[in-house]
User: What shape does this take?
Amino acid sequence: MQFVFSKHVKERMLQRGINEETVKDIVNSPDYVRTAFENRKIATKKLDKIWHVVLAEEENKIVIISVYFD
Assistant: This one.
């Protein structure tokens, strides 16, 4: 599956100190996933912090919208 990183998430990744490979790992093997608005999902995984990745699944690709932590 192809990953597409939005401009917004690239900025947030820099601010929050997380890289693309870690975001992909969270999406591919989350601790849990919950639904969000507008057909979006939030994948969550506990690493050094509890990370949340907001994504949208489209035909043959996953669009990464944002990332944040608790």
Summary: The beta strands are 2-5, 32-35, 40-46, 50-58, 61-69. The chain has one domain: 2-69.
